[in-house]
Amino acid sequence: MTADISLTPPDPKDFLDTDSLFDEEERLLRDTVRDFVRKEILPNIADWWEQGVFPVELAKTMGDMGLLGMHLEGYGCAGTSGTAYGLACLELEAGDSGIRSFVSVQGSLAMFPIWKFGSEEQKQEWLPRMAAGEVIGCFGLTEPDSGSDPASMRTHARRDGSDWIINGSKMWITNGNLAQVAIIWARTDEGINGFIVPTDTPGFEAHEIKHKASLRASVTSELSLDDVRVPDAYRLPGVSSMRGPLSCLNEARYGIAWGVVGAARACFEAALDYSLERQQFGKPIGSFQLTQRKLVEMMIAVNRGMLVAHHLGRRKDAGTLTPHQISFGKMDNTRNALEVARTARGILGGNGITLEYPVFRHMANLETVYTYEGTNEIHTLIMGQALTGIEAFS
Ligand code: TGC
Ligand code: FAD
What is the average per-residue pLDDT within 95-121? Predict the structure, then answer.
């Protein structure tokens, strides 16, 4: 016998009661991060975004909260589940994609390769200080002429006795000007290798990319490496192929699949609230059928994104998640979040273009999220290959 259907209307801001998918510990962590975002991020983010700055002092705060490398075990990292990491990304990105980006790059792109492919000495030296937010890392994979096709990278490293000499340049590097350490992927005689490069090494320079109209509360840089000499002890010994950087991307893309649901949720909630307050033609604009349709489409996208993220999280924790499934989440949740943000922007009318409301900022940020960590097209082709067995990148 089936149970009765409850006639109680759902919570407009959690229509499918996705809250019930998470256990008490996960909800506690989620609430802690949500509270942090409410108190520390939301009152300031419009100014940071307008000024084009990332508040670097947040690194230590987020380190104290256990948010940096949080899903890694040992070495001062919190060792949470993948689902808990996802929930944290969601709440951070409900604040701003730039704040989530900082955490993604630090944990998934700078700490993860050391944790996964580093020597014991490298892990001991770097991970505890990075987890505490005392040392900031960046991840140098993309180059001016190698974006979607990083395997075509020109940055190279050659052996010189027991040292390596690295030459090349990296483009669009998040945290580049903030970082004390850079993970630099370079071509060598042995394949593609990762190097832990302290950013005060002679020959290393970071130049901030200005005039961004997206992800403005995040530092993005071009790196140049001119005869940068590092000892072999700085090379990650555990990998010598594109598997190295691509493994890091799996971690970060997973976090994005969750994060963008937070940005979409923030836009939907702003639009819903606004639609009930703003009156035109003597009625709240939320009373018009055309507005209600938009609100429903947005609500469905947010809830569906949450279900996908949750499913990926449980698979990650079970050890059954594949990169193709991560592509599903990164691509579909990001494009839907962008659509939600654009729709919300319209509902807010003229107010939608100001930074008084979070919507335009999220919308502009999501344009970056759509492109980085594999564009919409690249994830389509990853899934297309999984469906057909045919590689269509080139
Ligand atoms: P392919 O020839 O197929 O494989 C090369 C080697 O890599 C292995 N592999 C993977 N390993 C782990 N995870 C994956 N997802 C993997 N995919 C492939 C593969 O088994 C092989 O290993 P081995 O040991 O046998 O050599 O790879 P490819 O070079 O042809 O690459 C294909 C493609 C196009 C999918 C890949 O290049 C790609 O994903 N391109 C997009 C580039 C991208 O996403 N860049 C992101 C830069 S970082 C960034 O944007 C940070 S934003 C900041 C933030 O996150 O907030
Ligand atoms: P391109 O690869 O030149 O692509 C241009 C267009 O062509 C896209 O629409 C793309 O989908 C399409 N295209 C390319 N190949 C194909 C194909 N085979 N089939 C169909 N269409 C195709 N990188 C890092 O290494 N570290 C970072 O920390 C980092 N942070 C970033 C921060 C920001 C703000 C931004 C904007 C980027 C960041 N990136 C970082 C780089 C990011 O990963 C790249 O921008 C992204 O991978 C795309 O590369 P591209 O910009 O060179 O575009």
Answer: 98
pLDDT confidence bin for 307, thresholds 50/70/90: very high
Catalytic status, residue 373: yes
Please report the pLDDT score of residue 381 as a whole number: 98
> What is the model's pLDDT at position 1?
74
13 token code pair: 């801001």
Put simply, whether the predicted model's pTM sits higher than 0.85 gets the answer yes
Mutate to test the pocket of ligand 2, among 112, 225, 371 (most ligand atoms within 8 A of CB): 371
For the stretch 189-216, what's the b/e string if a residue is b when 16 or more beta carbons lie within 10 angstroms of its beta carbon?
eeebbbbbbebebeebbbeeeeeeebbb
CATH class of segment(s) 243-388: mainly alpha
Beta-carbon contacts of residue 75 (< 8 Å; ≥ 6 apart):
69, 115, 123, 124, 127, 128, 131
Residue 218, ligand 1, Cβ within 6 A: no
Among residues 212, 142, 237, 153, which one has the least CA distance to residue 182? 142
CATH 3.40.30.10 fits 18-131, yes or no: no
Point out the ligand 2 atom lying closest to the alpha carbon of residue 245: 25
The whole-number pLDDT of residue 76 equals 97
Average pLDDT of the residues in 276-280: 98
CATH 2.40.110.10 residue spans of the chain: 137-234
Question: Does the pLDDT value for residue 231 go beyond 80?
Answer: yes
CATH 1.20.140.10: which residues of the chain?
243-388
CA angle 68, 98, 180 (to 5 degrees): 50
Centre of ligand 1 to C-alpha 41, Å, is 32
pLDDT at 2: 85
Could you tell me the distance, in angstroms and rounded to a whole number, from the CA of residue 277 to the centre of ligand 2?
40
Distance CA 40, CA 46 (A): 12
Mention the CATH class of domain 137-234: mainly beta
